[in-house]
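Posted in: Structural Biology > Protein-Ligand Complexes

Title: Requesting predicted complex, iron/sulfur cluster in pocket

I'd be grateful if someone could produce the 3D structure tokens for the following input. Sequence and ligand are given below.
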Amino acid sequence: MINYFKEILVGFWSLLAGMAVTIRYFTKPIVTVQYPRQKLTMSPRYRGHTEFVIDEETRTHRCIACEMCNRICPSQLISLQGVKVDAKKKLPSRYIIAYQYCSLCGLCVEVCPTKALKWSDEYLLCGFTREDSEIDLLRRLQDQQYAKGWPLTPIPRPKPEEPAPAKGEEVKE
Amino acid sequence: MLERGLEEKTYVLNLGPQHPSTHGVLRVELEMEGEFITKADPDIGYGHRGHEHMAENRNYQQFLPNLGRVDYLHALAYNQCYCMAVEKLLGLKVPERAEFIRVITGEMNRISSHLLWLGAYLLDLGAFTPILYCFDDREHILDLLDRVTGSRLTYCYYRFGGVPQDIDEEFVAGTREFIKRLRTRFRDYDNLVTKNVIFIHRTRDVGIITQEQCLEYGLTGPMVRGSGIPYDIRRSEPYSAYPLFDFEIPIGSKGDILDRYLVRVKEMEQSLRIIEQALNKLPEGPIMAEKVPKRIKPAEGEVYAAVEAARGEFGCYVVSQGEVKPYRIKLRVPSFANLSILPELSVDTLVADLVAILGSIDVVVPEIDR
Ligand code: SF4
Ligand code: SF4
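-- Reply #1 --
Done. Output follows.
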């Protein structure tokens, strides 16, 4: 009998103790970020999507269109095309990532021999269509250069006599 | 009933696949007799993505991101297991600092997984408040791991031979801060949950698993430790830097839900201890093994590596035929074995108890389906 009442008392006390915790936290400052009005800065290693590093000296990207990133990507989402600008040098004429397939593994960033890729801190990456998440890195680079007032890197075009890329290559399904 | 010309039938109730307490898309078909369950039949496979098959048509590195998506709650342990298996195949020696970083981040991830379980489980039991506190703490872990790994959930951080990026002073300081903070928070969790009379009455003597059952079903992790078997891969088959640290393996006595709960909470405290020791002893040095081949092409052979994930033993069996692609990868996931005991546990229980039992198993359904 005594045990019975004791249990009730202890139980009741435990509920009050739990309440005390909530009440204590009630008076503490809010911990959540009030999103549209308040935004976080991304951490330095935050993986948005990949983008070109802008070399401070040359004021352009460092990509040599070697296709290493293209080959290692698990989802094969990088659509890359290189153009020979002179005897030795090759430059990308097309570098589009289909971001919706990206698993943010970082293999492309690590494999690049010239360290031409880095992570952007873009986090608003939703869209209404599939095309919204296709990011053209060369254009993005131009936008960034424009914002800094630097000369834009021209996007080289494949020479007309070169055969046009086969259709199948671009389709990513 | 029969007098009125109605037939007697068992009543079949679907729990899930969209039920919030099944933690993913798990459907449990319940046969009921009145309020009591006579048979429970888990139906899995809704989230099947074919990870194991995917491994067969991509090379070793390309399978890395998949591991973060098998069990997204303790992704780093899965990363580590796969890396360990391939490192064994290649005969790579991981530098000490990298092992320490793996231990620190892996244990942080374990805490975040347990915290999420704690919050979500109490939500299943009808207590709304704790999840808010758990997520507050978990947020700190995610922020810290974000600084190191770059992602917040589906990590892909370890590489064959080490880790690609080092941890910095800020991370170390932040982690120390966090350890202090979480230790004070445990007191609140105690008051809020562990001592709570409603919680105790919902969980005590419910879903008892005996030691024999543990062995029969091949349970691992907190499930078997809750029943009093001190089986932990970190101890029984030490890997990485774990032999260097001093920690206890909490065990329960009865094997009911309360024991499993207590085991998980105590495990978080032990994880904090491990992290603290690892931070104190953190050696300097390289974070990547020397001579990691650019093209991973291990010699013919088969290896098995196992780690202690938040839910139990995760094993990775890799068969190589000396090509750039693995011949076969088999993932041994703990949730699958753990869930297999549910039909036996749920006989003659109420639906509300079934939810409590299911939650205490701590299944991650995508891991079962993989
Ligand atoms: S690996 Fe680097 S240099 Fe090569 S194509 Fe990719 S981004 Fe360009
Ligand atoms: S991060 Fe991974 S999935 Fe994304 S583009 Fe790079 S290699 Fe491909």
